[in-house]
From TrEMBL:
Compartmental location: Cell inner membrane; Periplasm
PROSITE patterns: PROKAR_LIPOPROTEIN
PANTHER family: ALIPHATIC SULFONATES-BINDING PROTEIN-RELATED, TAURINE-BINDING PERIPLASMIC PROTEIN
Protein name: Aliphatic sulfonate ABC transporter substrate-binding protein
Signal sequence, renumbered to the chain: 1-18
Family, as annotated: Belongs to the bacterial solute-binding protein SsuA/TauA family.
Keyword field contains Iron-sulfur: no
Record's keyword terms, sorted: Cell inner membrane, Cell membrane, Membrane, Signal, Transport
InterPro entries: ABC_SsuA_sub-bd, NrtA/CpmA_ABC-bd_dom
Gene3D superfamilies xref list: Periplasmic binding protein-like II (3.40.190.10)
Amino acid sequence: MKKFLGLFIISTFLILGACGGGNSAASGSSESETVTIGYFPNLNHAPAMVAKQKAMYEDHLGENVNVEYQTFPDGATFMKALAAGEIHGGLVGPGPAMNSFISGVDAQIIGASSTGGTVIVSRDGSDIESWEDVEGSTFISPRVGCTHNVQFETYMKERGVTSERTGGSMVHVTGEPARYQSMFENGDVDVATAPEPWASVMEAEVDANVVIPTSDVSFGETLPAAVFVTSDDMIENNSEQVQTLIDAHKEAVAYINDNPDEAIDITIEGIADITDQQLEKSVMESAWERTNFTYEVDADVIQEFGNSSYDLQFLKEKPDFEGFVNKTFIQ
């Protein structure tokens, strides 16, 4: 079913970009191997930053494995790297992972990273204080059809408001979340589908208004904001190493929940290293309250989100995600 869908949905590969095929780490080799972990400089990817800072992957993989890290600007780029074997696994938004699966890319979700963290905010002076004021405005998301885009448009469609893409009045533009603040300041957009910590940044820096909180936006507290994915090749040919990666990831999630104050400091540093933006701790603490760190993932929610992506015309066919979520490694 997955390969058949790929024949006529491959054009959607870039549509669900965010808001490896080959395996260089052969099991049992006595030579030094390299495993590359991918992630984004976002709050929802804090487990990767904590695991990196605490050398958790290195500890679990052992001394014969060299661990490298690669960051990405969006989910489509991440999934291309996974398909090409440039990374062995890591954290990405559920949207691009879903798109790759239905386009025929061999990838599986083997755990979650967090839920929550998507906030819909409006520009101060836009006169947009609730969803009822959004019609006819310009909104921004990281990519067309990304996780945050789908969450926002699902919420609005349920209330009778849609984007120009589907015959409605909302104008949609895209841009990196780190640029949202300047776009608000310049008056380029009215509404932002903001992944944390960028929503809290804009609340603090440009008096952005919360239009739809995390608790209310569609799939806000159930959909994984980030998922841990790897390739079919890794699962089929190196399952022991996949288990090791998930064990390290689970340790990072547990560490975050047990040591939130230190985890916040690590995440601030991790984001600054990539974006050159030093976030205030008070801002990160606000964002942290909207995020739940967990490695558990619900396959039914993934399917519901995919159905909504189809309803919003981001997908040409209703997806079938049977076999996409593999919970073997987190049990």
